[in-house]
Design brief:
single chain, mainly alpha, Rossmann fold, 5 helices, 2 strands, 32% helix
Length: 117
């Protein structure tokens, strides 16, 4: 089995260092250029994508025909959605960096995210 994982191009919140989970932001001009740069560099495999704009735009600009699915969305950050990384409380940063024990208020527990994906 061959599996390729491709992250979406840049969004405004990525550039600003904000947590971006389920907020449906489009790509910036740089993000669109990043996606177009993928064209012709990926093998002709079935393509699945998050159903959010940034992921679908990336796949389409890369010349792919994605099957969108909510199951591939990033983690839901709840009340932390849009928070600046540099201003996060240390316990949230640590849990995210270790990829364990993270459960933001009103958001998705890391274990639930892992099960979904």
């Amino acid at each position: 089995m061959e599996l390729w994982l491709v992250r979406h191009g840049e969004t405004l919140w990525n550039r600003e260092g904000r947590l971006l989970g389920w907020t449906d932001l489009p790509l910036t001009p740089l993000g669109k250029a990043q996606a177009r740069a993928l064209k012709g560099n990926l093998p002709p495999l079935p393509t699945y994508s998050s159903d959010l704009k940034r992921a679908l735009q990336t796949a389409l600009l890369a010349g792919l025909q994605p099957v969108p699915t909510q199951a591939l969305r990033e983690i839901h950050f709840g009340v932390l959605e849009g928070a600046l990384w540099e201003e996060l409380e240390p316990q949230y940063k640590e849990a995210l960096l270790r990829f364990q024990g993270f459960h933001p208020p009103g958001g998705e527990a890391l274990e639930a995210f892992q099960e979904r994906v």
